Task: structure prediction
Amino acid sequence: MCRCDFIMSADGSVEKLTETTRTEILDMVVSQMACNGLRTICSAVKNIVSTSESAAENEQVSTETPNFDDEETIIAGLTCLAVFGIEDPVRPEVPAAILKCRRAGVTVRMLTGDNVNTAKSIATKCGIITADELEGTVAVMEGVEFNRRIRDDKGKIDPENFDQVWTGLRVLARSTPQDKYTLVEGIIDSKVTKHREVVAVTGDGTNDAPALKKADVGFAMGIAGTEVAKEASDIIITDDNFISIVQACMWGRNIYDNICKFLQFQLTVNVTALIVSITAACAIGETPLKAVPMLWINLIQDTLASLALATEPPSEHLLERRPYGRKANLLSQIMIRNIAGQGLYQLSIIFFLLFGQSVFNLNPDPGLAAVIGPNLRFGQSSRQLDTLIFNAFVFMTIFNLVNGKFNNRVFFNRSLSHLTLLSTGFYWYLFYVIVCFSHFINQFDLVCFFKINK
Result:
C-alpha cells in the first residue's frame, strides 16, 4: 500500500491516492481484516508505455526496455486495485488439543510472521491466549519490541530482562527465525523457574533448523517441511496436525508410567521373596519358597504381569496432570510408599503362616527334625506349609499387580481399555487353570499344590 500513488475506484476510474485515503484503508480495511484473522494482500498494477501520447497519469512512459532489476523504480507509482483478505481456517480439533495441553501443564506459544492483529485473532480462536492473558503487557508483541525489551544498551541479551518477558509471552508476531532461536535458547537457559523448562519446537522451513536443533524436542512437518528441517528435528509429524503433538505427549507419559508400574510390581515381589528366604533360612534352616516355585513365579507369573503392565495403552487421564521434572527420580515417594506398604503386608501374612503352622494343624513330613520342642510349632516346614505359603504369596502378588496397574486412579475408570481388561482377565484365567489342574503337576513331583489325605 505504501508503494501505491493511485487507486482505482468501483467504476474503474483512477484517482490520486492521498495520505488521508491511505490511512483510512489501513485503519478501516486492513486492520479490520487482520483483527478477524485474515491475512491481507494488496493487489496493484503499473502500466509502462513507450509513448507519451494519450498516456494516463498513472502510466509510466519509457522509450527503452525497463530495467526490471531496478526494483525501487519498477514498483514505485503503483495503482491499487483491491485489498484481499485470505483466511487460513483453524482446524476444528486444534482448540480442544490446546486446552488439553493447558490441563497437562504444557504452555503453547505462537511465533509467526503475520501482522500482530492477525496473530492475536488466530491465537484467540485457538485458545493459545485467553482474555485474562490479553491484559498483560507482554502477552502479545512484535519481534522488534521483543528484541528491544530483552537486550541491553550494547545489543546483548540481558537474562533478567528476558525472564521478565518470556514467562508472560504467548504470541510473537512479525518474528524472524532468529527470534525463534533466541526465545528457545533463553527459555532453556533461564533460571526463573524451579525446574529447567523442557522446550519443544515445531517448524517446517530451512530457517527453523537452528531452533529445532536447539530445542529439547524438535517437531518437523512431514508434508510441508523441508528436508533440512526434518534432519534437524527429533520427531516428524506425518499429518502436519497439532493434535499429533498432543498424542506424542500422551504416549510418552504412558510409557513412563508403565515403566514405573512395572518397577513397583517387580521390586515388591523380589524384595518380599528375598526377605522371606533369608529370614526363614536363618530361623528354621530352610526356606518355604523353594527353587521350583520361585522359578514358576519368575518365568510365568512375572512374565505375564510384565506384559499386562507394559502393554497398557494411553488414555486421556494422563493429560490431566503436570509433567514430571527432568531430574525426577524414577522411584517416586508414592512408589516407595506402595512398595513398603505392600511388602510389609505380604511379609506379615507369610511370617504368620510360617511361624504359626500349628494354627492350621499342619504336620511335618516324616524324617524332618524339629528345631524347637516336640510339638514342632517352630520347626522344619512341611510340604503342606510350603504349598500354603506359596499359594498365599502368589495370590498376594496378583493383587499387587492390580494395585500397580490401577495406581493413583479409580479402579473402574471409564478410560480403561478393553486390551487392559483382556490382559488382566487372561492372566487370572491362566492362573485359575493352573491351580485347578495342579494335581497333575504333583504327579511329576514338580511342586506340591495340594495333598489329599485319604
About this structure: The radius of gyration is 36 Å. Confidence is low (pLDDT under 50) at residues 365-380, 409-419, 439-454. The first helix runs from residue 19 to 35.
